[in-house]
Design a protein that fits this description.
The chain is an alpha/beta fold. The chain has six helices and eleven strands. Helix 1 runs parallel beside helix 4.
């Protein structure tokens, strides 16, 4: 990568998000050619949604900062193909997300989706997220992401990784001097009851639901991203878009790989 790479920043928390400030500070440690294309409003949980049934509106905040009335995927696609003039970005950074994106979270994370869209466009892409305890009023430790984000970014960019892989980085909910180490992890699996639909009643007596998270015991495995973050480590997980389960693929191919079965 060049000494002053062109970097596209996006997120799913929106153009006014505090984490985007942290991401810009991280990016500017390696380049002054930084562009921002982020959703006009929060798009958490949008996953890889692409806006197909309504027009997208673009607001230009300055020469290299834009917001779009769409998803993180829309932002990266339009940023690369239309809004960024001249050469396309060398790097896409997404985040810093308000909350961890680990375990199955990565499948509905707009933050990870932004990085995934960059990867699919042939650009090195990294997602950053800052964990926090949603069951307490403690402040989010943006200083942890800001302390370690730049050194980790520089270290990662010294390496090569496959073009169909993005890197998912999660900072633990710890003060910078309490972070223990960096761990390269695999995607974990969380207690599925942590996500729930909370039934409520509005002033007119009509029921409605609010989907959210609750603090429940987790039993992560050593070596996965959930375990690393819970233990105060920075998690770095290589992810890719191919969801094929090859063991089952090979087994079924031996059974169904010929002519279609008949009654």
């Amino acid at each position: 990568m060049s000494a002053n790479p062109r970097i596209l920043l996006t997120n799913d928390d929106g153009i006014r998000a505090r984490g985007l400030e942290s991401l810009e500070a991280i990016a500017r440690t390696i380049s002054d050619d930084v562009w921002i294309v982020a959703p006009a409003e929060e798009q958490s949980g949008a996953s890889r949604a692409l806006t197909l049934h309504q027009p997208l509106r673009v607001r230009r905040h300055d020469d290299r900062r834009f917001s779009i009335t769409g998803t993180p995927t829309d932002c990266v696609l339009m940023g690369v193909q239309d809004l960024i003039t001249g050469k396309k970005p060398d790097l896409v950074l997404s985040g810093v997300n308000r909350g961890a994106n680990i375990a199955e979270d990565v499948t509905f994370s707009g933050t990870v989706a932004g990085a995934m869209q960059g990867m699919q466009l042939g650009i090195k892409s990294i997602a950053f997220s800052q964990a926090y305890a949603w069951t307490s009023d403690a402040p989010i430790r943006w200083d942890t992401a800001e302390t370690y984000g730049a050194p980790i970014l520089k270290k990662l960019l010294e390496q090569e990784w496959p073009k169909d892989v993005l890197l998912n980085v999660n900072f633990p909910d710890r003060a910078p001097d309490e972070v223990r180490q960096v761990e390269v992890t695999r995607q974990g699996r969380r207690n599925q009851e942590v996500v729930h639909a909370d039934k409520r009643t509005d002033p007119r007596g009509v029921d409605y639901y609010w989907i959210g998270f609750r603090g429940l015991p987790q039993e992560p495995e050593d070596g996965d991203d959930l375990h690393a973050v819970m233990k105060g480590r920075i998690s770095v997980t290589p992810l890719h878009v191919d969801l094929t389960h090859m063991e089952t693929h090979h087994r079924l191919k031996g059974i169904l790989g010929g002519a279609p079965p008949k009654e």
